[in-house]
Each structure stands twice: as structure tokens, then as C-alpha cells.
Amino acid sequence: MAYEAVDDVDTMTFEMPFSDLASDPSSDSSSDPAAPDPVVDDTRPTTTMGMGHSVPRPAARSGAINTNSTNPAPAAAQLVSGDSLQASLKMTIPKARVTKIVDGRSVMIDSGQIVELTGLYFAYEEDGKDSRNLLDSYEFLEENLKDRFVRVYQTMDERKGRVNRFGHMLAHLVREDGTWIQGSLVTSGIARVYPTEENPEMAAELYAFETAARAAKRGLWAQDRWKILSTDEVDLKKQSFQIVEGTITKTATQNNQIYLNFGEDWRKDFTIMIPQEKRQAFSRASAQPLTWTHRRVRVRGWVQDYNGAMIAVQHPVQIEFLDE
After folding, report:
1. Domain that holds residue 199
2. What is the pTM (predicted TM-score) of this model?
3. Residues contacting 233, CB < 8 A, separation 6+
4. Inter-CA distances, 188 with 191, 199, 278, Å
5. 215 and 174: one domain?
């Protein structure tokens, strides 16, 4: 099912000193025609977030981190508990030591395996301007994980979602003192939430932390360029990861794909597309997108340029209802 948006969250957080990071300033199913099947440009370099949606690989990696960004760094890390993970995920490694911070979203553990933090998206560049979110995350991990022991939690289904195409583990990490790393990065405003079809777990909890960080204007949420977009604004943000809010005006199907339209002209207005092969995931979640006319929603994903701006949704977890 799609998630109900959380307006506020009561969490126990505590602050730890955060390293000084450089000298930066700062329904009715419509019978109207819908667009034909889009052709997705997959020629750009990508990295897989989970085993589902692919997104461009940031240039900023360990050893090549740009410290000349104009984005302000957060003053303190907000650390949150990971007690809730065991109800939704399987602890696959009960104790491992983090030996190296590979980059802002990956670490190496004492077995030599690289673990990528699943469920997150890091803003890294827009309009030619470097973001320091990956640097913030790298510094956070150095401060809070290097040479520390962690528990590794992964999806319950051992057949998928545990390893990406590079052979890296996809996991949530909980420090030996109970600190949940993904939850802390989101609460601190360092990362945005991006659950995938292979790793949809913990989305509701992370969405709540993100809502609180946004309300407090922590980290990236203090900058207008990372704000949630209206459907009128998203057309200017094609070929990037975005979070978009709006009201569905019409629903339609074509070639067994579902289109959720946010304007009168589907040829140029914002659209959510649910591919044919992903409809089963919605059915399993008892979600009925064709009945969502007039519903106000928040959706996140990669904005494509096809008859206007469009996000192809891989799993219902990418959609939150705002009118419940």
C-alpha cells in the first residue's frame, strides 16, 4: 500500500559533535489517451540503488571529494535508535567491525565485504553546482562508524535485494550502541529517503524522520534547491531525482501500463507511470491506483522527460498519501 504521510514524529534523538567540514559559507479510469510506452535513456553511468531503479553515479567518491562546495554543513549529527529494524529485516551479520569508509554511502567491514546503505538518496549535483551531501555523509560515517562494531540487517527474502550488481551488500546498519545509521542520516538532513522495490522495508519510519528534518530545516532541507516540488515546478528538473507533490486529476491505462495524470493535458503535464511488470507489486499491497483520482500524493523517483515530466514508479512504497 502507499504510505500515509506523517506530519510530525516524536523521536528520541541526541547530539554528538559533528566534525568541522571545511570552510564553506553558507477512480475513475479515464478513457482519454495516455502516452505510449516511454523509451528510457540508460546510456548514462549508473549505480543501482537496491536492485530496482538505477540512478547516475556521483563523481564524488572517497579520495575524490570536492570540499569547495557552497552548501552549509550541519552543526550536529542527530542519532536515532534502530530498535524497530528487527521486526521487518533479518540480521544477517550479528557483529562486524567497520574497517574503512569507502564513500558517503558505502563502508567496508572486517570480512572485506563492501556494504552499501540502502534506502537513501544523496543529493550531489544540480545545475553544475556541487552538493556536499556525500561529503557530509562521508564525514558522518568517519565520525560515527569507523572502527566501530555494527549489526547488519537485510531484507527477509534472501533471493533478492541483498546484493547489488557490483557484489556489494545492500543493508541497514545498526551500531553496537543501537544507533541506526540510515535513520540518523535522514534525521540529520544529510540524505533523502529512497526505498526501492527490492528494499522497501523501513520506508514509513524513514519518511517520518525525513518529515521532521524538513520541518526543522536540517541539512539539505535548509536549501531551496532540494525542496519538494509542485507538479508545476518539476518540468524544470528533468533527469534528476526529485520529490513531487500534487493532486491526481485523471487515471488511465494503455498497453497495460497505468498513468496517473496531474493536469488536463497528459502530453505536457506531470505524470506518474506504473509499468506493466510492476502492477503486481501494487496488487500484492492491495493498492488500486485507478481509483486514486483527486487524491493528493507525494511521489519520489527519477524524473524522465517524456510528454512532460514523468516518474516511473517501481513500487507503491514510493508514493505517500497526503490527504489521510
Report:
1. 44-222
2. 0.77
3. none
4. 8, 22, 32
5. yes
**CATH code (residue 51):** 2.40.50.90
Chain segment 189-233, per-residue pLDDT in tens: 999 999 999 999 999 999 999 999 999 999 999 989 899 999 999
Contact 107, 145 (CB under 8 A): yes
Using an 8 Å Cβ cutoff, are 141 and 203 in contact? no
Q: Is 317 inside any structural domain?
A: yes
Cβ neighbours around 126 below 10 Å, total: 14
Do 256 and 213 sit in the same domain of this protein? no
Q: In sequence order, what DSSP letters do the residues of 149-210 get, joined into one string? A: EEEEEE-S-TTSSSB-TTS-EEEEEEETTSEEHHHHHHHTTS-EE---SS--TTHHHHHHHH
Please identify, among 189, 222, 255, the residue that sits at the C-terminal boundary of a domain.
Answer: 222
Give the length of the chain.
Answer: 324
pLDDT digits 0-9 by tens, 79-101: 999 989 999 999 999 999 999 99
